[in-house]
Amino acid sequence: MKPSLTVAAFLAVALIPAPAVAHDSDAWRMRGADVSTLQRSLELGQRFYDVRGRRDNPYDILKQAGANYVRLRIWNDPTSGYSNKAKVLEQARAAKARGMKLLIDFHYSDTWADPGKQYTPAAWEGHDLAQLQKDVYDYTYDVCTSLKRQGTTPDSVQIGNEINVGMLWPVGYVNNSDFGPLAKLLNAGYDATKACSKRTEVMVHTALAGNIGAAHWFYDGITAAGARWDVTALSYYCMWHGTLDNLTTVIGDVTDRYGKPVVIAETAYPYTTENYDHLENIMLSAAPCDGIPATPQGQAQEFAAVQNTARAAGAIGVFYWEPTWTAIDGNGWDTEDIENSGNAWENMATFDDNGKINPYVRWLR
What is 105-164 written as a DSSP string? Predict the structure, then answer.
């Protein structure tokens, strides 16, 4: 049974007040959606519907909800054939054609990279630090210039994804607080990006929004080792990264400490506890945070709260992670078995199992 939506509930969410603090509207400039699985969904026949139930282009539906940026991950050579260079080039054209800005999320892996795993691409296995620096530079420059040649120059890039203890393990793993190898890899990506496009912003992304001590350890470490970056990117999921008060502290602290703007590169919240495929969902709780229910209204309430908190603390934007990843058959999480592996995130999407957007969700302007 699908959750029902009421006018009263809509107003309760839609009228959440903005922060009392005055803000420069230009400073709140990244209202993002990671739609890395969208291309596969569309190819499989998924249809998307706006708040009135009318079929429409999903990028246009997201824009109507306030989004202005898309984030696309890129894997070097994934078995699935998706999120590789060719597919990212195609999807970048589709997004830019709808007037969206573009963030490219380099994983530097053939599969998922996150705090628990940073697998070196098979083609780079066994390479020493000097060779990996060249690999990162050449690959980053090639992807960026390929995007540039087709008129879709990335507005931002991430050099690594959730690299809490480094990337391209084992060479880029931070052992005994030695950030030297990681800093060299980060700078290879930074230099390649700027050689392609000086205006493209470079992010260093960790999932450390919930731990100020760990954030200091990491960003102090890469700073001391000479790493260069433009924007500090953090993942924040309330289920794992603590309270909004703590998020306020972390954003304000790292903004001041490193003198760089902060963006929340990932966040999400469930709109239901129901499961629409054979794979159990990651988030099962009926009220994961602060008593906010896993309902369409609750999803919108939590997303609005994260945005309001981030903006009041001085951040420049928030990205919702995978709002279009519905449970359509064949768009699974496993790069080795995309056809059959299933989706454990569909109850966190902002589109329901029928492809209709949650009418309460807004990217705040």
Answer: EE--SSS--BTTB-BPPGGGTT--HHHHHHHHHHHHHHHHHHHHHTT---SEEEESSS-B
Q: Which of 43, 90, 201, 266 is catalytic?
A: 266
Nearest to 162 by CA among 80, 240, 274, 79: 240
* Residue-range domain boundaries for the chain: 30-348
Q: Is 162 one of the catalytic residues?
A: yes
Quick one: how many helices (H) and strands (E) in the chain?
A: 10, 8
pLDDT at 16 over 60: no
What global pTM score does this model have?
Answer: 0.93
Write down the CATH number for the domain with range 30-348.
3.20.20.80
Active-site option among 162, 201, 322, 346: 162
Checking if the pLDDT of 305 tops 50, the result is yes
Chain segment 20-36, per-residue pLDDT in tens: 333 445 799 999 999 99
With 90 as the cut, is the pLDDT of residue 15 above it?
A: no
Is 280 designated active site?
no
